[in-house]
Amino acid sequence: MLDVGQGLALVVRHREFTLVYDTGAGDPAGPNMATAVIVPFLERQGVEAIDLLVLSHGDNDHASGAEALHRRYPVTETWVGEALPVTLQGLRDCRAGDKRHWGELTITVLWPRDARGAGNNRSCVLRLDIQGVRLLLPGDIEASVEHQLLRQDRQALAAEVLLLPHHGSRSSSSSALLHAVAPEWVVLSRGYRNRFGHPHGEVRRRLAAFGLSVCDTAELGAVHIELLPGRQAAVSGWRHKHRFYWAAPASPACSPAYNGAHVE
């Protein structure tokens, strides 16, 4: 999960496959987080093409860099939670039940179920399954959609890694969702001292009630989760590994909930 301030940009790499989930904020026709952060990261990783670009919904802090990524890379498919005012190659709507398989990686769309609605609650909700480990990426859905997902298929939400919905907004991350997901890791993308006050105090208290800590980009910078066969998942923050010599050391990972799932 890249550090893009108040926004979201997450990259998943499996063998030669590359998924980008959201692109951060900025000017779609000028400076944005896609050109400032995502492209340099992908270049450093040696990525030459994006297999799947998912734009959870149309808010600027999630979708502003879509055209920039299309200009820089061949993009095989682009999935969107809601209609966007741009024309992109390989564009299609997210629909619950859709699946893609790349080697051991399975990507399942859990939401939206139909074309109704717009905004946060049209977010494309993905579950990623990789050799027994699950990641849940809910975009900016709010509690009303969380409860619909719970009624739809509660078991489908269980995951070792949860991206905290809507940057920790008060309107999301209900106790019912946290109980159903039962995550070992919680990751949060937000801006330092952002004007929205994310994550909200009520969300912090819910997380504490479940014994969960958060890997937070505002504190750790980019958050890296590595899954290797036969080893524990390794979670680290950029600022822990690359801190300035005068800075106090950052926490190396989120704790205490994770119990060490293995990838076989």
- Give the CATH level 1 class: Alpha Beta
Helix content: 10-25%
Q: Quickly count the domains.
A: 1
Q: Quick one: biggest sheet?
A: 7 strands, mixed
CATH homologous superfamily identity: Ribonuclease Z/Hydroxyacylglutathione hydrolase-like
Kindly report the CATH topology.
Metallo-beta-lactamase, Chain A
Quote the beta fraction. Answer: 15-25%
Weakly predicted, low-confidence segments: 255-264
Structural class: alpha/beta
- Please compute the radius of gyration using only Cα atoms: 17 Å
Mean pLDDT: 88
Shape: globular
Q: Would you report the number of β strands?
A: 14
Q: In whole angstroms, how far apart are the ends?
A: 23 Å
Strand order of the largest sheet: 6-7-8-9-10-11-12
DSSP summary: helix tally: 8
Order of helices and strands: EEHEHHEEEEEEHEHEHEHEEH
Which architecture name does CATH use?
4-Layer Sandwich
Structural notes for this entry:
The chain has 264 residues and is α/β, with parallel strands linked by helices. It has a single domain, classed as Ribonuclease Z/Hydroxyacylglutathione hydrolase-like (Metallo-beta-lactamase, Chain A). Helix content is 22%, strand content 24%. It contains eight helices and 14 strands. The strands form three sheets. It has a seven-stranded mixed sheet. A five-stranded mixed sheet has the order 1-2-3-4-5, covered by helices on one side. The chain has a two-stranded antiparallel ribbon with strand order 13-14. β1 and β2 form a beta hairpin. The longest helix is centred in the N-terminal third of the chain and has 12 residues. It is globular and about 45 Å long. The C terminus is likely disordered.
